[in-house]
Amino acid sequence: MGMLQVLGAYLVFLGLLSAQTTASLNGTIPKTYGIVLFRAFDSIDVLGPAELLYFIGQVHKTEIAWISETLDPVTTEPLMAVMNPFNSSVFQKIVPTHTFETAPDLDVLIIPGGAGIRSPYLNNTLKYIRETAPKVKHVITICTGSALAARAGIMNGKKATTNKTSWPNVIPFGPNTTWVPRARWVEDDSGEPPIWSSSGVTAGLDLMFHFVETFYSSENATWISKLTEYVRHTDPDDDPFARNDTIVAPTAG
Amino acid sequence: MGMLQVLGAYLVFLGLLSAQTTASLNGTIPKTYGIVLFRAFDSIDVLGPAELLYFIGQVHKTEIAWISETLDPVTTEPLMAVMNPFNSSVFQKIVPTHTFETAPDLDVLIIPGGAGIRSPYLNNTLKYIRETAPKVKHVITICTGSALAARAGIMNGKKATTNKTSWPNVIPFGPNTTWVPRARWVEDDSGEPPIWSSSGVTAGLDLMFHFVETFYSSENATWISKLTEYVRHTDPDDDPFARNDTIVAPTAG
Description:
Chains A, B: Residues 37-213 form the DJ-1/PfpI domain. 2 copies of one chain form a homodimer. The first copy, chain A, is α/β, with parallel strands linked by helices.
């Protein structure tokens, strides 16, 4: 195809996009998202939600701030060699756009999980989460990001879920959290901001589709599911990876 | 948790991992993967397969080479402002590890899609794909990566699928390819190397799970689906986003 045909095809595509714009809830939609990056984050925990926001950005002015301790690229490689027993090199690095000091005011704070949530070197990350969460409109955690949020101290008295395989290792980070063992995702609206937590990795896509449906439009969610050919799980209680644990009651704070 | 507890928990996790190792098909498994990066690639096309390989790397020595024209970070941002009508900043940058000149010999070449496949500035990328494909054991394309592969000239006489929404805009890149409108993924074993192509974005996860099942073990695939809480689509013909197009017959080459 020549360049004119390419451009023409793309304008048709944009035409589809602008049709979606009118269906949105103007005025209430989030504009600025911040995603916290730290060593040994999980790729899809971060880039699953970002994929949906990529398309949302084509119908609404949207910003993602990629926030980390420094502007150095952040790797998915674990800190300890014991966590990479075959000395594989399967990791990638993402470039942050902001540090904790330069991050803009956010509408939505997204906290991913990954092996790195257990690191003893996250004091500044935890401080940023602790200080930022009360100022945003929504907190979203993906996978073991809810355990990182618990380490930061923002999950006391909240209900949440997390990765079901990592469950026994990470729920101790939140002794004052009600951990829900059967949930694709959990919405806790008991305080401000509401905290939405998803189960492991790809469950974050379902949470994020529901977030788009709630704060943009169901047309937007359907449109993005078609573009990404993602078969959504729309019922938060339909959890194929549910654990049999009884709900862990909050202990005294 | 203290550091010893964290390490203990992780060693349990590694114990689970080494149990998986024994079930693998030693000797036939791929070791070196190359993922081609170009401006305006799609995030999940790249990081979906990489997520599975991240876990495979914990049970087999595995390398991913992130290959691009230069070592500069590669952005998902489209080249043309018209493709970002709301001036959103929702893009991220990934750091390549190799250029086309320094890339290692590969067992598997992975070609992602994204808006950037239409770029007129991909001559070196197309040359790399064209020259590398005949030397690898497997070619995998995700989403519109099959159209990029067609642009590179490696899809003549092959059957393949691609993103169903982008279908009319991208299949013209492969006039001598049999495009399959109902397929979660397609395996073409008619020549060497075999070429596996997936439908849009998240269909690449299903292709990759099947690849893991085929060349590593079904235990590995099940283990990773649990860790990522991904509900697999295991039937390549079960395509919820299938088009009604009749199959486009190859035209004279």
